[in-house]
Each structure stands twice: as C-alpha cells, then as structure tokens.
Design brief:
Blueprint lengths: L2 E13 L4 E3 L2 E3 L4 E2 L7 H13 L5 H4 L12 H14 L2 E11 L6 H14 L7 E6 L5 H4 L3 E12 L5
Parallel strand pairs: 5-6
Antiparallel strand pairs: 1-4, 1-7, 2-3, 5-7
Helix pairs in contact: 1-3
Catalytic activity: 4-CDP-2-C-methyl-D-erythritol 2-phosphate = 2-C-methyl-D-erythritol 2,4-cyclic diphosphate + CMP
Pathway: Isoprenoid biosynthesis; isopentenyl diphosphate biosynthesis via DXP pathway; isopentenyl diphosphate from 1-deoxy-D-xylulose 5-phosphate: step 4/6
Keywords: Isoprene biosynthesis, Lyase, Metal-binding
C-alpha cells in the first residue's frame, strides 16, 4: 500500500467587519479573517496539504482569488472538492494533524467541533483528525493579533480494491 504525505500552510489577516470562521466554526470575536472566500485558514491549510500529497498544485491554482465564483464561498465546499480529487486518484485520508496559530481568541472551546466538522467533510473517523491551537507568546504577526495562521500535515493511503 502506497502512503503519501502532504504539508499545508495558510495565513489571513484579521480585520474588523468580518466573521471569524475556523474549521467551519463561527467563533465569537471582534475581528474576522480577510479573504476572497470565507477565509477559513484551517480548511485552506488542509486543502493545500491534500493537494501537496499528490502533487496537484495548490488551492490558489484551483480556486483563484480573482474568480468571482469563489467570492465568499464556504471553504468547506472547497475542501470537499479537493478531497474528491484525492479520492478520484485512488487515495483516502489516513490521518491529519493541524495547528492553528492565534494569540486571540482562545480556540480550545471550539477544537472538538472543528474535529467533528472535518470528520464529516472527509468521511472519516474523528480519531484520524487532530487539531490543536497555540499562541506565539506575543511574537510576530499572530502575536500582535494581526492575523491567524494554520499548518497541516496529512498522510493519504492508496485505496486497495481487494483489501
């Protein structure tokens, strides 16, 4: 059985007047992430990790930010399309490990719901999904509360027809 690994990273600036959506969860906060879509930084990092695992380019190539079809789109739909392409090539998720980097807000109360959302979107057991959050102890753009970043590492495994 062939196993492949993918790594993804995404970052968006925090701005006033936008909802903060991470991992498909709307999080109460005074600012939200700026982006062409709903700017779900976690879903974007995971999508790039999937694409990287099979050398399929990146999320910006598939869903360009100058294409009006994707303005304000739910990033869960983008992630589902990316995963459909992974499945179409004979692979499925083995496991996912992701980290969200944000000084504020505190994300721990929302992590379980993010994991549940991902398990449903990716049609997998929640045990295959790890999502964590950390701060930068006040350092850098995240520490200054200028933006939020996410990193994701995934492994995909070849789907065997007879086994």
């Amino acid at each position: 059985m062939m196993i492949r690994i993918g790594f993804g990273y995404d970052v968006h600036p925090l701005v006033e007047g936008r909802k903060l959506i991470i991992g498909g969860v709307e999080i109460p906060f005074t600012k939200g992430l700026l982006g062409h879509s709903d700017a779900d930084v976690l879903y974007h990092a995971i999508a790039d990790a999937f694409l990287g695992s099979l050398a399929l380019g990146d999320i910006g190539q598939l869903f360009p930010d100058n294409d009006e079809r994707y303005r304000g789109i739910d990033s869960g739909l983008l992630l589902q399309e990316v995963y459909r392409r992974v499945r179409e090539r004979g692979y499925c998720l083995n496991n996912l490990d992701a980290v969200i980097v944000a000084q504020k807000p505190k994300l721990l109360p929302f992590i379980q719901k993010m994991r549940e959302n991902l398990a449903v979107l990716l049609n997998t057991a929640i045990e295959n999904i790890s999502v964590k959050a950390t701060t930068t102890e006040g350092l850098g753009f995240a520490g200054r509360e200028e933006g939020i970043a996410a990193y994701a590492v995934i492994t995909v495994k070849e789907v065997l027809e007879n086994g």
